[in-house]
Specification:
Blueprint (H helix, E strand, L loop, with lengths): L3 H17 L2 E3 L2 E3 L5 H8 L4 E11 L2 E4 L2 E2 L2 E2 L8 E4 L2 E12 L6 E8 L2 E10 L2
Antiparallel strand pairs: 1-2, 3-8, 4-7, 5-6, 8-9, 9-10
Length: about 130
């Protein structure tokens, strides 16, 4: 039987472990969802910064078919057609790499329109 104090210890350790997977810059924790200015203010200048624009389509295709007697016509010669409601948008993407030296892994950060979307570990720093 596990004591109640062990449950509290387990819960506390899970909360601490969750933040251990985030990027740390000194005493600050960097999480996805933060904005570029916040990250820059806490981590400083990145070792490498590259930016580009990606075009993405948003929306979907609506399939319209002629209705006969309140039901959709399933015949092969039906009057179906597709209508696209897709809109193309431009996303400004910035990819930052932080090199904190040989004792830590390099960190890759991906920003989309100024918002941090991805944090990934890279190889050991130099």
């Amino acid at each position: 039987m596990i004591k109640q104090s062990n449950y509290w210890f387990l819960l506390l350790s899970l909360l601490v472990c969750q933040s251990a997977f985030a990027l740390r810059c000194g005493p600050y924790v960097i999480n996805e969802g933060m904005y570029r200015g916040e990250v820059y203010g806490k981590c400083g200048q990145a070792t490498s910064v590259e930016s580009h624009i990606e075009r993405r389509s948003t929306g979907h295709i609506i399939q319209n078919q002629q209705l006969f007697g309140g039901q959709r016509n399933a015949l092969p010669n039906s009057f179906g057609y597709g209508q696209s409601n897709a809109v193309e948008v431009e996303i400004v993407v910035e990819e930052w790499i932080y090199n904190f030296g040989p004792s830590r892994l390099q960190q890759y950060l991906r920003f989309e329109n100024g918002k941090l979307m991805e944090i990934r570990n890279l190889s050991r720093g130099y």
